[in-house]
C-alpha cells in the first residue's frame, strides 16, 4: 500500500467484480455489507453501460446487499444471509448465485461457504463465492479476474466432451453490453473462424452461465490478459491445450494474434490469407488520415494498462508519439518486460495518487498533447483543455448503440477513425474561423 497522501487513481476491486457480473446476464449477487455495494453497481448501470441489467425498476436487482454495517457487525446475521440467498435463487431469471463481502465484513470470520451450502442445498442452483479483496491492495482488474477464477474453479464441467476444432476464449474484459464490446466479441469469433476453428464460448461475452459452460466442448483455450489464471484453471480441469495470446488491439497486435493462433492450430496459410485481406481493406482507408491526424501528433493515455503498450505501438507506427500515460491498474498486472518498456516512456506512471495527477496533468493543454485518450475517471480529474476521446472503464459520456468494435483489424480502423476525427476537430477548434 502506498505511503503517498491522497487516493490512488485506480477503480476499486468491487467495480471490476461487478463489471464481470454485468457481463453474465443471469448472474445474481448478494454482498455482505452496507448499501454502498449497490451504489457501486449504479456506477455501471445506466452510466457506463446503458444496456446493463444489474438494476431493475421493479426491485428485482441482480446486485443485492445484506445491510451489514459497523452498527450491527457484532450481531449474528447468518439467518438473514441464508434467507437472502434463497430469495435470490428463487427469482425466475436467476441462473447462478454469487456471494461476496466487503473487507470490513470479511474480517468478521463468517463462514460464507457453509452458508452457501446450507441455503442452496438440493436446489441445483449453481453458486459461487467471490474471494474478498485482500486488504486494500486489490483493484478493479483483480476483481474482474477473481470472478473469472471463481467461475473456472466452481463451474460444473461434468459431461465435458472436447471436440476437434472447438475453441474457447477466456480472459476478455467485457466492459459493458453496448456495441463496442458486443462488436469485439463478434470480431474475436470472426478471427477464430477464419482459422477454421469454431468459438464455442467467450469468457466473458454478456451471455448466460449456460453459455459459459460450453467451454467444456473446447479442445483448446485461447487465453487473454484479463483472465490468465482462469484460463489455466480451465485448461487443467479439461485436460486441453492452452494458448496464451495478446490482445488484438491495433494493426500490429492483430497481425501477431492471428500469426500465433495460425501457428498453434497449424493454420498458417489461413492466417496469412486473412491478414492480407484485412490489410488490403483497412490500409487504403488510412492513407489520407495518417499525414493529417497522426504524423507528428502527440497522444496522451489514461486507462487499462493491458491496452497501453499496443496503444503506444499503434500511435508510433503511424508517425505519432506518446506524450504520457496514466495506467489505471497495479504494475503487477503487466508482465515484467512490458512493464519496463512502459515505464521507460516519458511521463508514464502506474496508479498515481490524485494529488500527483492534479499537479502534473491538470488542465492538459494542446501544447502538451493533441489528443487525450482517457476514461471518465481521469477525464473528470484532469479536465483537459485539449481534445479527448473516452476509452475504457468508465466511459460515462460515450456510448455505442450499434456494433463498433475496437479489436481486430476492423476494430483498429474504427478506433483510429475516432482518434483522427477528434485530432482534426481539435486543430480547427483552436484556429479562429474567418468569415
Any overview of this molecule?
With 435 residues, the protein is of the alpha/beta class. The chain folds into 3 domains: 127 residues, Nitrogenase molybdenum iron protein domain (Rossmann fold), CATH 3.40.50; 118 residues, Rossmann fold (3-Layer(aba) Sandwich); 109 residues, Rossmann fold (3-Layer(aba) Sandwich). The protein is 42% helix and 14% strand. It has 17 helices and 13 strands. The protein has a 5-stranded parallel β-sheet with strand order 11-10-9-12-13. It has a 4-stranded parallel β-sheet with strand order 2-1-3-4, with helices on both faces. A 4-stranded parallel β-sheet has the order 6-5-7-8, sandwiched between helices. Helix 6 runs parallel beside helix 9. The termini are far apart.
- Total helical segments: 17
Overall average residue pLDDT: 93
Per DSSP E runs of 2 or more residues, the count of β-strands stands at 13
Radius of gyration based on Cα positions: 22 Å
Computed structural class: alpha/beta
Spatial ordering of strands, largest sheet: 11-10-9-12-13
Give the total of domains. 3
Q: Give the termini separation.
A: 57 Å
Shape: globular
Q: What is the name of the CATH class of the largest domain? A: Alpha Beta
- Taking pLDDT < 50 over at least 5 consecutive residues as the criterion, the unreliable ranges are none
Q: What composes the largest sheet?
A: 5 strands, parallel
The CATH superfamily of the largest domain turns out to be Nitrogenase molybdenum iron protein domain
State which percent range the strand residues make up. 5-15%
Q: What string, H for helix and E for strand, traces the elements in order?
A: HEHEHEHHEHEHEHEHEHHHEHEHEHEHEH
Fold-level CATH name of the largest domain: Rossmann fold
> Which architecture of the largest domain per CATH?
3-Layer(aba) Sandwich
**Helicity, in percent?**
40-55%
Amino acid at each position: 500500500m502506498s505511503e503517498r497522501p491522497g487516493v490512488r487513481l485506480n477503480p476499486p476491486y468491487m467495480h471490476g467484480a461487478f463489471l464481470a457480473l454485468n457481463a453474465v446476464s443471469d448472474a445474481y449477487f448478494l454482498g455482505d455489507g452496507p448499501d454502498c455495494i449497490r451504489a457501486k453497481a449504479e456506477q455501471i448501470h445506466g452510466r457506463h453501460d446503458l444496456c446493463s441489467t444489474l438494476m431493475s425498476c421493479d426491485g428485482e436487482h441482480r446486485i443485492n446487499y445484506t445491510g451489514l454495517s459497523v452498527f450491527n457487525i457484532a450481531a449474528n446475521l447468518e439467518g438473514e444471509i441464508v434467507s437472502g440467498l434463497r430469495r435470490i435463487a428463487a427469482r425466475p431469471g436467476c441462473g447462478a448465485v454469487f456471494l461476496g463481502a466487503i473487507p470490513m465484513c470479511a474480517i468478521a470470520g463468517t463462514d460464507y461457504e457453509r452458508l452457501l451450502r446450507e441455503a442452496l442445498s438440493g436446489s441445483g442452483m449453481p453458486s459461487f463465492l467471490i474471494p474478498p479483496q485482500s486488504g486494500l491492495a486489490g483493484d478493479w482488474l483483480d476483481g474482474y479476474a477473481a470472478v473469472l477464477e471463481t467461475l473456472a474453479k466452481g463451474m460444473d464441467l461434468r459431461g465435458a466432451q472436447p471436440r476437434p476444432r472447438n475453441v474457447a476464449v477466456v480472459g476478455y474484459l467485457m466492459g459493458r453490453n453496448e456495441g463496442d464490446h458486443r462488436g469485439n466479441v463478434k470480431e474475436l469469433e470472426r478471427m477464430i473462424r477464419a482459422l477454421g476453428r469454431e468459438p464455442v464460448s467467450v469468457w466473458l461475452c454478456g451471455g448466460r452461465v449456460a453459455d459459459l459452460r460450453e467451454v467444456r466442448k473446447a479442445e483448446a483455450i485461447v487465453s487473454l490478459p484479463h483472465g490468465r489464471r482462469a484460463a489455466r484453471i480451465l485448461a487443467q480441469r479439461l485436460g486441453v491445450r492452452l494458448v496464451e495470446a495478446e490482445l488484438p488491439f491495433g494493426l500490429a497486435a492483430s497481425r501477431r494474434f492471428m500469426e500465433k493462433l495460425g501457428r498453434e492450430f497449424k493454420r498458417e496459410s489461413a492466417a496469412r490469407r486473412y491478414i492480407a485481406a484485412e490489410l488490403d481493406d483497412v490500409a487504403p482507408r488510412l492513407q489520407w488520415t495518417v499525414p493529417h491526424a497522426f504524423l507528428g501528433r502527440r497522444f496522451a493515455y489514461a486507462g487499462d494498462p493491458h491496452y497501453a503498450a499496443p496503444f503506444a505501438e499503434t500511435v508510433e507506427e503511424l508517425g505519432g508519439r506518446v506524450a504520457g500515460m496514466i495506467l489505471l491498474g497495479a504494475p503487477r498486472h503487466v508482465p515484467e518486460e512490458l512493464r519496463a518498456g512502459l515505464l521507460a516512456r516519458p511521463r508514464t506512471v502506474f496508479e498515481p495518487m490524485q494529488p500527483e495527477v492534479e499537479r502534473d496533468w491538470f488542465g492538459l493543454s494542446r501544447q502538451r498533447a493533441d489528443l487525450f485518450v482517457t476514461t471518465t475517471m481521469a477525464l473528470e480529474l484532469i479536465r483537459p483543455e485539449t481534445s479527448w476521446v473516452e476509452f475504457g472503464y468508465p466511459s460515462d459520456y460515450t456510448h455505442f448503440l450499434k456494433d463498433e468494435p475496437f479489436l481486430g483489424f476492423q476494430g483498429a480502423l474504427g478506433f483510429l477513425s475516432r482518434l483522427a476525427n477528434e485530432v482534426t476537430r481539435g486543430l480547427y477548434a483552436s484556429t479562429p474561423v474567418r468569415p
